[in-house]
Write a structure and sequence with these properties.
Layout (H helix, E strand, L loop, with lengths): L11 H9 L9 H10 L28 H11 L3
Length: 81
């Protein structure tokens, strides 16, 4: 579908700001809009079509030795609930 408009953005915070300004709909992860949804500044549209997200994943080559800092980060994120 071709969409015509005056504004193009490529990150979620910009999309939220544009939606808050009344420029249209914003398809963003809920984390970016949660506060505005709670305050009533934004409303959810097409909620039945929203995709669920099980979490973030990080992949890295197993052939390389990870740095100590990277290993600590992976361990911290692995057990974060």
């Amino acid at each position: 579908m071709e969409v015509k408009g005056q504004l193009l953005v490529n990150n979620a915070p910009q999309k939220v700001r544009a939606a808050l300004a009344g420029l249209g709909l914003a398809c963003v992860p809920e984390d970016y809009a949660r506060l505005h949804l709670k305050r009533g500044d934004l409303v959810e549209a097409l909620g039945d079509w929203a995709k669920t997200h099980a979490g973030f994943h990080r992949y890295y080559p197993s052939r390389r030795q990870p740095t100590p800092a990277f290993s600590l980060l992976v361990e911290a994120l692995r057990y974060r609930a």
